[in-house]
Amino acid sequence: MDALVDRLDRIRGTVAPRNHNARTIAALTSNPGCGRRGLMDAAGVNKGAVAGHLGFPAGFGQSRFAIARGNAFEAQVKADGAAELLQLLRERLGLAIPEVAYDDLSNVGGNASREVRYARTKSLLARAAGERDDAGTLFDHPMLRLDIAGYYAYLEPDLIAFRVGGRFHVVEIKSFAVIDGQADAGKAAAAARQSAVYVMAMRELLGELGHPPETVSHDVVLVCPENFANRPTATLVDVRKQLSVLQRQLSRLTRLDEIIDALPSGLSFDLAYDTDHLPTRPADELRKAVSTIDARYSPDCLGTCEMAFFCRDESAGSTAAMGRTVRDDLGGVESIGTVLGLARGTLTPGAGQEEIAGLLRFAHRLRTECLEGTA
Amino acid sequence: MPFVSESNSAAIEALERRIDRLRGELRRAATAGDRTHARALRAELRRAEHAWDDALADLEDRSTPVPAPDRKAPPMLSIREQVHHALTLLGVPAAPKLIIAVHDAFFPGELVAARLTSLRRDEERSFKVAPFGRPYYLCPALTADLLSPARGLLAISTWPLEVRVVGPLSARVDFLTGAIRIAQRVAQLPPDAHDARRLLWRFAASIPGATGEVDPGTVADQAQAELDVHLDADAADRAAAAGRARDRLDGAEALFGARLHKLRSRTAN
Question: What gap in Å lies between CA A91 and CA A258, rounded to an integer?
């Protein structure tokens, strides 16, 4: 394991690894077949900087208006000892009236360092898991951590983990609206993936303390504004599927040995920053280094990966760049040039391409007829 | 006087029409290439514009000054007094947002949120310069476990330590206590005190059995019912913490809280 961490350190270069958060860890689970992304994420490479140096800067990050809106809604729900949240949990989950203890873990005696907060979270949760009656119900901004490829990623559920019926539930507060019982599918899925990361980190923490993983419920409480008002509503979301995807993905991260063994030994994505923090690594050399690992670009990457614009440029002309459905429809044909050649009949189909070639020619004939008909 | 200003404004309007007409003529003369006529027109236009300027200045002089927009009178009380009033009404440590809501509902004048942020620091500085030089200080509530300042909760220094320390249950207990105090105050107000009633309604929304309730008596009863469940445990917590605080904290720390690094350096010595 240490040899692997050493190797990843060399690949990353002289800079500190990028910190993971729930968002980036959740993003690891999209496009799991991409070796480039898997390696760069495991090594904690600053992909945004690498992509920028290669000439494909990605305008990534959350809008600050979205962040401000999210924070305001969270503050409203948690105001006055989480009064609104308590009311919701009592209505929806049958939280008992005496269960109102509220612990603020966002700093410990004015000290907001991650290690101190983690230690405090751990001791409080240990007490709560020990089934003591006075052991607390709501934990505001606890600090958890997860081992990602040899490094601890510190995670701060923007929410509270509380105890009902002897089980912990992760509460995720999001500011997108649930209108008439329906939320934006993409946002709800992203929230579920992030919550799964927290559930996993909580289970790890309680596992260290000798509690079974079931102590943390796989049902996450998602709190969102209801309809067009600012009143919060709570929904239970089952994240078992996201959890298993995440587990598989993280275990893959630690089994990177095989990928790494196949790479040239001197491979590095170091940008060689000088004293003014300007990258000095020649872009061509870096491009060669990045190109040694296979990527699997698909249009979804644009929403989740900083390298997406580079990979899209690299894979221009291949059928995969047009998305999964197109690639599946054109099974076995790699490049767009071949597809067009087969359709126009200028290329002879190779072994196994006869069927798709027939279909393509038929489609081409239909198209020409249509166009001639309109002309 | 109004007659003069009316005739004046009529004169200005005539001048404006004349300026417009002259400009049109000037443009036509310029396009036609009639230079002498254009020059004469330009001079006339300039004279008309000067006359317009003078007439306007005259009009300004004569008009009675419009009273300045009705700005809210500066509050008669200092911000710390305003906060003191709101906290005294609530009787428990409260977050700045709640303090502002209570102030807006029950007291005249405006409490500026931005000025609340520096208030705590100013109070601590003032205490350090002249300890106990003021009858009261606005200080943070103290956490029961570490006796450090609780995040975003203000209290009054003259309150007993049992009120100023907050344990895990205190957030709820203080919320319910505040609800009862507000209900009692609302009961004394006329029925058209809408701001105060709206605040009470907001509290009631989070109290079991009082949701949507606007009758102060019912809200207070329901809050008391829930309060009875938590009160004993919370009082025991707070009393224990207050005892520890009395033993360990002195001077500024007893008011403004102990910091973790201070405790550490002390144990190191």
Answer: 51
Question: Looking at the complex, does the CB of residue A104 fall below 8 Å from at least one CB of chain B?
Answer: yes
Asked if residue A168 lies in contact with residue A200, where contact means CB atoms within 8 angstroms, the answer is: no
Contact present, B234 and B169 (Cβ < 8 Å):
yes
| Distance separating the N- and C-terminal Cα atoms of chain B | 84
A94 at interface of B, judged by CB pairs closer than 8 A: no
pLDDT higher than threshold 50 for residue A69: yes
Give A180: exposed, middle or buried? Use CB within 10 Å, 0-12, 13-18, 19+: exposed
Distance CA B63, CA A3 (A): 88
Interchain pair A81, B150: CB under 8 A:
no
What are the tokens at A114? 């991650």
* pLDDT tens for each residue of A41-64: 777 788 888 888 888 887 666 778
Closest partner CB to A110 (pick from B149, B203, B229)? B149
**Residue A235 burial (C-beta neighbours within 10 Å; 0-12, 13-18, 19+):** middle
The whole-angstrom separation of Cα A27 and Cα A44 is 13
Q: What's the confidence (pLDDT) of residue B2?
A: 46
Picking from A287, A337, A289, the residue whose alpha carbon sits closest to that of residue A313 is: A287
The single residue listed with the structure tokens 């004993």 is: B232
Q: Which helix (H) or strand (E) holds B125?
A: helix B113-129
Rounded-to-integer distance, Cα B225 and Cα B223, Å = 5
Residue whose token pair is 């309150």: B159
In chain B, the residue whose alpha carbon lies closest to the alpha carbon of A102 is: B168
Q: Of B72, B152, B165, whose CA–CA distance to B119 is shortest?
A: B152
**Distance, first Cα to last Cα, chain A:** 67
Which of A75, A84, A108 is closest, CB to CB, to B206? A84
pLDDT digits (tens, 9 = 90+) for A83-125: 888 888 888 888 888 888 888 887 776 677 788 888 888 888 8
Q: Indicate the SS3 state at residue A89.
A: helix
What is the maximum span of chain B, computed from C-alpha positions, in angstroms? Answer: 102
Q: Please, are residues A42 and A5 in contact by the beta-carbon 8 Å criterion?
A: no
pTM for the model = 0.72
Report residue A118 as tokens.
Answer: 């983690």
Rounded CA-CA distance A306/A170 in Å is 29
Q: Closest to B97 (Cβ–Cβ): which among A79, A111, A136?
A: A79
Measured in angstroms, the CA of B105 and the nearest CA of chain A are apart by 17
**If DSSP codes are grouped into helix, strand and coil, which group holds residue A301?**
helix
Write out the two tokens for A199: 């559930």
CB-CB neighbors (< 8 A) of A102 in chain B:
168-169, 171-172
> Where do runs of H (alpha helix) occur along chain A?
2-12, 22-27, 35-43, 47-53, 64-93, 114-129, 185-208, 240-254, 257-261, 283-291, 301-304, 308-314, 324-329, 336-344, 354-374
Q: Across the interface, do A81 and B175 touch by the CB < 8 Å criterion?
A: yes
Pure H helices in A130-239: 185-208
List residues of chain B with CB under 8 Å from any CB of chain A: 95, 97-98, 143, 146, 148-151, 168-172, 174-175, 178, 203, 205-206, 208, 211, 226, 229-230, 233, 257-261, 263
Number of residues assigned to chain B? 269
